[in-house]
Specification:
Blueprint (H helix, E strand, L loop, with lengths): L2 H10 L3 E7 L5 E6 L1 H4 L3 H15 L6 E5 L2 H17 L4 E7 L5 E2 L12 E9 L3 H12 L3 E10 L5 H4 L4 E5 L12 H4 L11 H8 L1
Parallel strand pairs: 3-4, 3-6, 6-7, 7-8
Antiparallel strand pairs: 1-2, 4-5
Helix pairs in contact: 3-4
Bound molecules: zinc ion.
Zinc ion binds next to helix 7.
């Protein structure tokens, strides 16, 4: 499936918003992808995860890991598709926040990572922080990361950035992001969206 068709799937869910946004990185920009909208449409999530699974089906993946919350749905659908494609039971686990800005596997999942070929999945990455911490959590437990599968690589994150053999992303479109002082939308006094991203926090802090 072509990139533009996948972007259309995002559009159909209302996940692509235009306006004046504050991203997690604290930079400002005109476009926001609200992944939470996508997750309401399970057939679309299933379809996207199948494309990732198809790509990695011959890589000896035994376990799919991703950062909560988005990673919960993604790991389930991707592991399900891989199980069907490979006729093996592929596990799905998710990472959560640990101490000192790390991701860790709780709930006994940690005991299932060692020695397994792992695929790490994430929805939309800008800095790649959550996915990188999940990669590191897998490695710390003795898992072997075979690759990373992304729905949207908004920050042009590379396999070198993440320390993995391969990054496969369904969409690679990046968005312009501005420092607050250089933001053309701020310069035009366009109101900041407070429903998504960090807009609300930004305005509270500013006040
Ligand atoms: Zn701005």
């Amino acid at each position: 499936m072509e990139e533009k068709e996948i972007i259309r799937i995002f559009e159909e869910t209302g996940a692509i918003l235009e306006g004046h946004f504050v991203y997690t990185s604290s930079k400002h920009g005109k476009v926001y992808v609200n992944k939470d909208f996508l997750y309401m449409f399970v057939l679309k999530v299933k379809l996207l995860c199948e494309i990732i699974a198809e790509h990695f089906k011959d890589k000896n993946i035994e376990l799919v890991a991703g950062p909560a919350i988005g990673g919960v749905a993604l790991t389930q659908w991707t592991a399900f598709a891989l199980t069907q494609f490979t006729d093996k039971e592929i596990l799905a686990v998710y990472s959560e926040d640990g101490l000192n800005n790390t991701k860790i596997f709780k709930r006994g999942y940690d005991k299932h990572v060692k020695g397994k070929g792992a695929l790490v999945v994430e929805d939309i990455t800008t800095t790649g922080g959550s996915v990188k911490k999940t990669v590191e959590a897998v490695k710390a437990l003795g898992g072997i990361v075979m690759g990373v599968g992304l729905l949207w690589n908004r920050g042009a994150i590379t396999s070198q950035d993440l320390g993995v053999p391969e990054v496969f992303s369904l969409v690679n479109v990046t968005f312009e992001a501005f420092d607050e002082k250089e933001c053309p939308l701020c310069a035009q006094n366009i109101p900041i969206n407070t429903n998504v991203g960090k807009g609300r926090e930004y305005l509270i802090q500013k006040a």
